[in-house]
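hiii, so i know i said id send this last week but things got crazy w the move. better late than never?? heres the sequnce for the chain we talked about at the cafe, plus the structure i predicted for it. fair warning i was half asleep when i ran it
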Amino acid sequence: MSKLQSMTELVGPGDKSVSAFDVEQVRADFPILSREVYGKPLIFLDSGASAQKPRVVIDCIREAYESYYSNVHRGAHHLSQRATDAYEEARVIIARFMNAPSENNIVITSSVTESINLVAATWGRKFLEEGDEVVVSEMEHHANIVPWQMLREEKGIVLKVAPICDDGSFHLEDFEACLSSRTKLVAITEVSNVLGTRVPIKKLIKIAHDHGAKVLVDGAQGIVHQGVDVQDLDVDLYGWTGHKLYGPSGVGILYGKADILDSMPPYQGGGDMIAKVTFEKTTYQDPPYRFEAGTPPIVQAIGLAAAVKYVEELGMGNIAAHEHGILAYAHQQLADIEGYHEVGTVPDKAAIISFLVDGLHPFDVAAVLDRQGVATRVGQHCAEPLMDRMGIEGTVRASFGLYNNRTDVDALVAAIRKAKEMLS
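okay and structure toks below
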């Protein structure tokens, strides 16, 4: 029986049960939300870049460092055994969260960026040849563009770009028109980090498979807002990052189907990824350990498992419904601001709003917002080709999380009005 099937509770403190989603109760779980900035209450609207951490995650990390921190997989002593158990239990919890067939489908990395680079450096180098095609979209994050450009320079592959519409919508017909007999991989975002556009990923995967292509999904934004079921999607490879899902930075996940991971060569060489080393020949461990050379992000993975348990207890459906309500309220309130324009206006988008104000530079707007205690993102959001496609230099981005409420939206609206007053 798989360890996934016989999973026990995560080693660590702070379990809690939430019977119904109550945003004020949730906000109390996040210590940083009680602080002030420039003498004003902190209004945190930058969760798309990196989400804040609940007390349960902070306590879990503290407990690991204070009580049982040690390196994993190597020590014969008590601390190492306990740390190893907690680290591997984290892999099991993450596998369950994604509905992976086994914990062995879960590779622990440092970030979604590393997860994508791992695929490019292993599967890409082994299976892609000159003239083979990788298809991305116009709204990809740099992390899902640059690795394929590097592989293009190295191996002569062709990088094709599926278009989007002016409103940020993604149409499967336009995507399918990009596919050919030479398409070997589709590397696609699940949710745009700028536009909030949700890609119809399950249908896209079927289309790609019908054309004989594998699919790698960048789920950094998608998993936060809607969760994931990798078996239902039938996705080949799926990467995401811990710090956007209310967990620590420095840890990411790569899910892969067993046959694909088995076919991939090692990513890096070093300790823990080897079966046997001699000066004549080295043999490697089976996945996932083949891809985890050196000391892994031990405590970060344990903290991520605590974050996963936290959102599971709240319920991903409850979180999605709450964020949908906040987004709808924000659209209603922001529409009354003269000169306000949203970039990306598709219906059923994730809780991300990128916007401009007529006559005002986005950096100036964001600076005024900051002085009002409202934390937003500004610039190109690691999506420069998308900015070129939309004909703009950048935007201010307000990205909502499970802890945001209507008061936060009201503060954003008031701060934008203040920026108009000060800068016009």
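btw The two ends are 66 Å apart (CA to CA). thought thatd interest u
miss u guys!!
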